[in-house]
Structures are given as C-alpha cells and as structure tokens.
Amino acid sequence: MVAYQGGDESAFESLYGELAGPVRAFLASLTRNAARADDLLQETFFHVHRARQTYDPTRSAKAWVYAIAHNVFLMACRTDRRRRRNEELPAEDLPDLPVPAEAESLASRDLVSRALATLPVDRREALLLHHVEGLSFQEVGAVLGVTTMAAKLRSHRAMGQLRELLAREGAR
Q: Which of 5, 82, 121, 132 is the most exposed place for a label (fewest CB within 10 A)?
C-alpha cells in the first residue's frame, strides 16, 4: 500500500490480488448476493484508489481496506432503502458464508452457514472480521467505527448466539 501510495501503479495489482478474494467473501456474506458483492468489491477498490493518499502507513492496510468495504456496504444499504429495492435470491442461490474455525467443530458447515445468515449484520461482521479474516479486535473496531470493546462484545455475542442456534438445530 505504501508503494502504491507513492505512485507505483503495479503495487495496486499486488494489493488487489491479495485482498480482493477475502474482501469479496466478506461482502458476499453481508449482501447474500454474489453479483452485488462483485459490484461492491469494485466500488471498494475504486474508493481505495481515490483515497490512497489518506492511508496511514502506521496502520494495517488490510484493516483500512475492510473499513472502506464496510462503508461501501453501508452506503449501498442506505441507497437500497431509499429505492425500496429488495433483491433477495432464493436460498439455493445464496453464496456460502465463511465459517469460523471455532464453529466448524460444533456442526456441519451448511448448518453453521445457515445459522450465520440469521445473525444481525453488525454482529456477523464483527465475528467474520475477527474469526475468519483474522483482524484484531482493535482493527475490527476501526473497520466498524466502534470501540475495541464494542467489537469484542459484538463478536462475543455473535459467537454465543451462533452456539445457541447450533445447539437448537442439533437438538432437532
């Protein structure tokens, strides 16, 4: 990111190559729509390009890009609400949600993915950013615009809710 910020255009290709897949998966888990996630990914990297001079090299580039993706997602949600447009896909067409390693031992991947989809978006974001993407709680807080403690709390509550949902599903 520092090289790209300094004018090295080829550094953008490296940055995109490293982060596009995980950021797309993150956006797909939020939107539950593959085409929408692709659009938001392009929008995210457009904003990365436009805001590259604001990047602080003392901070994580990964967390900075996720923060931009988070904000792009929120802007898209606001736009959709204004347009009153709901583009939900049938369940069989929904992309797979990434499953935290901690949850894989609790139940089948499909069951965990369905349970993740029922979590509130703010909690699901915190859980995915920390447990799947490997960001620290401080970085998660920066991405989501909340304190480190709030990020921990959201992730903890999401994991507790996920365990409860999985226990309930397993009991059937």
A: 82
